[in-house]
Amino acid sequence: MNLKDEKNIKFVACERYTLPSMSVLGQLNPAPIWIYFEEICNIPRLSKNEGKLRKYLLDFAKKNNLESKEDEIGNILIIRPPTPGMENRKTVVLQSHMDMVGEKNADYPHNWTTDPIVPVIRDGWVTAKGTTLGADDGIGIASQMAILTDKNLKAGRIECLFTVDEESGMTGVINLKPDFFSGRTLLNLDSEDEGILFIGCAGGMDTIGTMNYNAIPVENSSCAFEISVTGLHGGHSGDEIHKGYGNSEISVATFDGGNLRNAIPREAFATIVLNKSDIQKIKSLIDSFYSTFLDEFGELEKDLKVSYREVDLPSFVIDKESQEKFLNALNCCPHGVIAWSKEMDDMVETSTNLASAKFNDNNTINIVTTQRSSVESSKHDVAAMVESCLRLAGAEVVHSDGYPGWKPNLTSEILKITCKSYLELFEKEPLVKAIHAGLECGLVFEKIKGIDMISFGPTIRGAHTPEEKIEIKTAQMFWDLLTDVVRNMPVK
Fold first, then answer.
1. Does residue 54 share a domain with residue 121?
2. Any idea which residues carry the catalytic annotation?
3. Whole-model pTM above 0.70?
4. Cis check: omega of the bond before 30, within 30 degrees of 0
5. Is the pLDDT of residue 444 over 90?
């Protein structure tokens, strides 16, 4: 829905929130969340580079006379004291992560260390121009800030925990000390489906292979083509582009597929060298591959494009043996859903993502994969499967330490409170599920046995891609639910 058509929208009038000049989001509901979120969009905050946002949060706490502290790794806690008369209520911890995934369209100029995210309102959603929006988890941060400064909210003690580096390894929560906060009821604000309450999540780990190759000089009588696969929603982006070239002498000079370990690949680019006599044959093979791809995935991948163009001849290509091993590794490496949950309907239990494959300047190739599972042993099983593929191709393989899953607790007190609030607010029952994505809750639970947790949020689609967007109407629903749960925390 376009804002100009929303005749029935009720805008929040709130004296303490002054709309910044040229504000795009300031007229949306709930105003406090959107104003804070727009401010956050102006602050670069990729994983491991959250320094500017940490300063922003600490300055915010100081400005609002709120107690705050920062630990050695960079996690921040800001505390709102209880409303007079509410001192006997249980402390609630609201938790989000400061960092975001930085993905952009290949043709969009953006410097992730200096440039702001440019929010755009489109058909009832907020998205960004050319980049990820950072609603994951900027909307969680904004909601915490709004809670901390809401003078009309009567509640017990509220501890707002902001963690660093969730997206690239969860090192913030890994290094979190159990006594950094005192509450033992935690609301994780990092979910992306309004109407679903999450009470469990998958654990995850990375498996990374490094291959060496020899650089072979290119003959001047050859020519070079760059092959591009672009426009995918996210999935295999050209890993099998080499299929069908068996009858032609081609050599791979460069390969750059995917980007971040926690984003499904959307684009891949390869430079190949071939005999000039084979130009027409290669063009026909690529056109045939494109046509087959459109027939198979055209309805799902409406922006898919496979293209080629002649480019300058590179100085080197990789040796034939390494090329064969590399292409075989991409071809055999598993990708996608491995197993579905036997306990919960429509929930992925185990998966693996072939996240990226890149040639480096030092004659090495890096292949990065990520495994997730709600079953700890299955996570390691699929990681071993990936390792076998990479080792057979001659790669050196390392695994990250990973993070544990979060086991559902259907008797949870905070689950009952949140379900009751949701039913009273929206006159319908919420869904209760576990999520296949990784949440920091698993690591928190590992550190603090018995902590009571739940995760919920507004509807976000396309996270970790430039198509990321948040549904405007669900932000209001998220806010209503969050404030009602906080307000109704039980007596100690």
1. yes
2. 99, 166
3. yes
4. yes
5. yes
